[in-house]
Amino acid sequence: MTQLSVNVNKIATLRNARGGNVPDLIKVALDCERFGAQGITVHPRPDERHIRYQDVRDLKRVVTTEFNIEGNPIPSFMDLAEEVRPHQVTLVPDAPDALTSNAGWDVARHRDFLTEILGQLHAWGIRTSIFVGTDLKNLDAAAALGTDRVELYTEPYASDYPADRTKAVAPFVQAAEHARSLGLALNAGHDLSLENLRFFSESIPFLSEVSIGHALISDALYLGLEETIRRYRSCLVGK
C-alpha cells in the first residue's frame, strides 16, 4: 500500500508571514492525520524560513503516524535528527538558498560523505532515504551505500505529464523497477498533484510512500483539508 505523507512546510510559511501562531502548524498536522494522512513530512532549512527546528521538536511529541524529516545533512540538521529520532530522514542536496528542492544527489560523487551520514542515521535507529533522479547507475551507487530507500524526484514527470503522460512516466517506471531489483524500497515526491498522481501510482504500484506538500495545501484552500486528503488517498494504489 502506498502511503501519503503530507508536507506541512507551506503551513509554516503562511504562519511565519504574520508572526504568531496562525495557522497552528501542530493542529494542522494532527488534522492531516485525523483525516487520513499516513505520515507528516517537514523540511527545515538553515534560515528557518518555513519549518523551524523547534517545530520539528514539537511535532515529534504529537505525531502518531510516520514522521519524515527532509533536508541537507549539515551539522545542525544532523544534531536535530539525533535529538528527535524521526522514523525516516530523507537526504536532499539543497543549497542553503534553494527555493525548493530541484535535483537529486550525484551519489557516486558524494559517496564518502553519504556513507558517513547513513552510518550515523542507522546507528540512531532511523530509516534512511536518498533523494535521487532516474539515472540507473546512480541507483546502483545508492544501493551500494546501504540506504533503506530512495525517493524519486518527480518534477520532470510532472512537467512532461500534460504533453505525454506515458512518455513522462517511462523513466520513472524503469528506475523504480531497477531500484526494487536492488532491494531498495521506493518513495517519490515533488510536484505530484491530483492531476498526475493517480497515473504515477498505477504505473508504479509498489511505491512505499509519496510526500506531497505544495499542491495538496493549495488544493485544500478550495476543497478543504479533509476532502483534499481523501482525494489524494483515492489516487494511490491500495489507498
From TrEMBL:
<feature type="binding site">
    <location>
        <begin position="213"/>
        <end position="214"/>
    </location>
    <ligand>
        <name>3-amino-2-oxopropyl phosphate</name>
    </ligand>
</feature>
<dbReference type="InterPro" id="IPR036130">
    <property type="entry name" value="Pyridoxine-5'_phos_synth"/>
</dbReference>
<feature type="active site" description="Proton acceptor">
    <location>
        <position position="43"/>
    </location>
</feature>
<comment type="function">
    <text>Catalyzes the complicated ring closure reaction between the two acyclic compounds 1-deoxy-D-xylulose-5-phosphate (DXP) and 3-amino-2-oxopropyl phosphate (1-amino-acetone-3-phosphate or AAP) to form pyridoxine 5'-phosphate (PNP) and inorganic phosphate.</text>
</comment>
<feature type="binding site">
    <location>
        <position position="7"/>
    </location>
    <ligand>
        <name>3-amino-2-oxopropyl phosphate</name>
    </ligand>
</feature>
<feature type="site" description="Transition state stabilizer">
    <location>
        <position position="151"/>
    </location>
</feature>
<feature type="binding site">
    <location>
        <position position="18"/>
    </location>
    <ligand>
        <name>3-amino-2-oxopropyl phosphate</name>
    </ligand>
</feature>
<comment type="pathway">
    <text>Cofactor biosynthesis; pyridoxine 5'-phosphate biosynthesis; pyridoxine 5'-phosphate from D-erythrose 4-phosphate: step 5/5.</text>
</comment>
<dbReference type="Pfam" id="PF03740">
    <property type="entry name" value="PdxJ"/>
</dbReference>
<feature type="binding site">
    <location>
        <position position="45"/>
    </location>
    <ligand>
        <name>1-deoxy-D-xylulose 5-phosphate</name>
    </ligand>
</feature>
<feature type="active site" description="Proton donor">
    <location>
        <position position="190"/>
    </location>
</feature>
<keyword id="KW-0963">Cytoplasm</keyword>
<feature type="binding site">
    <location>
        <position position="191"/>
    </location>
    <ligand>
        <name>3-amino-2-oxopropyl phosphate</name>
    </ligand>
</feature>
<feature type="binding site">
    <location>
        <position position="50"/>
    </location>
    <ligand>
        <name>1-deoxy-D-xylulose 5-phosphate</name>
    </ligand>
</feature>
<protein>
    <recommendedName>
        <fullName>Pyridoxine 5'-phosphate synthase</fullName>
        <ecNumber>2.6.99.2</ecNumber>
    </recommendedName>
</protein>
<keyword id="KW-0808">Transferase</keyword>
<dbReference type="InterPro" id="IPR004569">
    <property type="entry name" value="PyrdxlP_synth_PdxJ"/>
</dbReference>
<dbReference type="InterPro" id="IPR013785">
    <property type="entry name" value="Aldolase_TIM"/>
</dbReference>
<comment type="similarity">
    <text>Belongs to the PNP synthase family.</text>
</comment>
<feature type="binding site">
    <location>
        <position position="100"/>
    </location>
    <ligand>
        <name>1-deoxy-D-xylulose 5-phosphate</name>
    </ligand>
</feature>
<keyword id="KW-0664">Pyridoxine biosynthesis</keyword>
<comment type="subunit">
    <text>Homooctamer; tetramer of dimers.</text>
</comment>
<feature type="active site" description="Proton acceptor">
    <location>
        <position position="70"/>
    </location>
</feature>
